[in-house]
Amino acid sequence: MSSSAATERLRRLEECGAIAGYAAVVNPEQLGYPLLAYLWLRYPSSKYEPLHDLLAKTPEVLEAHHVTGDDCFIMKVAASSMQHLERISGRIGQLGSVTTSVVYSSVLTGRELLPHVK
Known about the structure:
This protein is α+β, with helices and mostly antiparallel strands. 28% of the residues lie in helices and 23% in strands.
């Protein structure tokens, strides 16, 4: 594909909103956060402001998703150590029951949905 064709394709994807922005991909391990975990929170309330406030103050929570099922929220967390993860889990656990799963290894990360573009 020529440079001009690639530029035109990017322009069209930006205009239709398919490309929402550009960002640097940061390696948490290189920043001192070698531990990755998922926390499942069973949140007993329908008032989400306390959770949203806690998430705003907890930069180690990389993602948080409201989901169906018994556990209302799933969070992706980066930590510097098991003790650090335990402190984060403890803070979140003040809002409800938490289950923690530590990631051994990641076989697929950062995949973006790329539709076939003509």
